[in-house]
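Is pyridoxal-5'-phosphate placement plausible here? Inputs below.
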Amino acid sequence: MIPVFEPDVSNEDIQAVIAALRAGEISGTFGRHLADFEREFAAWVGRRFAVATTSGTTALHLAMAALELPPGSEVLVSASTNIASALALAHNRLVTVPVDSERRTWNLDLDLLPSLVAERTRAIMPVHLFGNPVDMERLMDFARERGLLVVEDCAESHGATVRGRLSGAFGDLACFSFYANKVITTGEGGMVVTDDPALDRKLRLLRNLGFTEPRFRHEVLGFNFRMPGLQAALGLSQLRRIDSIVESKRRLADWYTRRLRSVAGLQLPHEPEGFRHVHWMYALVVEPSFGISRDELAKRLKADGIETRTFFCPMNRQPCLGGEELMRFAPCPVAEELWERGIYLPSSTRLREADVETICERIRHAPKGAGVTACASR
Ligand SMILES: Cc1ncc(COP(=O)(O)O)c(C=O)c1O
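Reply from A.M.:
I modeled the complex. Tokens:
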């Protein structure tokens, strides 16, 4: 089976975790590795502060809590995203307003923002889908004009750039995930970055149960979203080779694109001029002219030992967001089409060009449905 993803953990990563374990950096918010990871990550993104959390989901949750928006405030969020983006809003009593996708990049359609802003709109949460960065310069100009806050969801976009500037360097806050399949990993883990010292203080306070002085007397309702030092050690070790990981991802994407660009009926990832897509996952859209549906393609690839995943179910179609207090409904026909037709392919940095050749060969043959033999098990 060629899995959709395999984590890239090196010997140095393992040694780093052992060193943190030996130093007793097992839990809490102390220790060299956690401080170093936060400092180096902030410097890498080009922000003043970084606060590590237990996951990308809790990074988003913490970021929204730190903004202290009045309950019932609306947040415009990419319709095509992981449910974690909307959960961070729902658990902070904020209302999701889904923004439909743009056809070429599959990111939120910036042209739709003016018509979606309403009286209670307070913030925008753009998601850099599959590692393709949103045009953050344009989005920030719009947000500043309207007095809206911006929280970037960079869970999939470590290393992506907009005219040379990294995703995560634009919003009032930006959140990253270090889940096992992300560009870099800490197992489970996340990070919030900002330039605002007051927000940094608030994030740290809320992350650690709202502990202040005197100890055990709490002024605010906090959370335990602390990343342990041994996971920070893994993150730090991974961060130090992020450039080569991103390069591998882009090389993998290039192998796919060169083999699939001539196949009729497949829409491949689009990297706008001046943007750097990191291809967290190599995604494509199966058009009706391909000859078989996305589901049929996935089925045939699975039979050949190739694992795939669909695009996200858009937020306007999420049963868990039913109810006016959770979502202001907005139609999202493009995101719905992507949910029906989008698929992503094995994207592990461990894949060799020969694996990509095999996968693309199967894709090219899939509409004919014959003449393919199963891949060797890996
Ligand atoms: C866009 C997006 N946001 C948030 C998350 C949540 O991150 P985590 O799995 O680390 O909680 C994910 C992925 O898992 C994601 O893809």
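Short version: The two ends are 5 Å apart (CA to CA).
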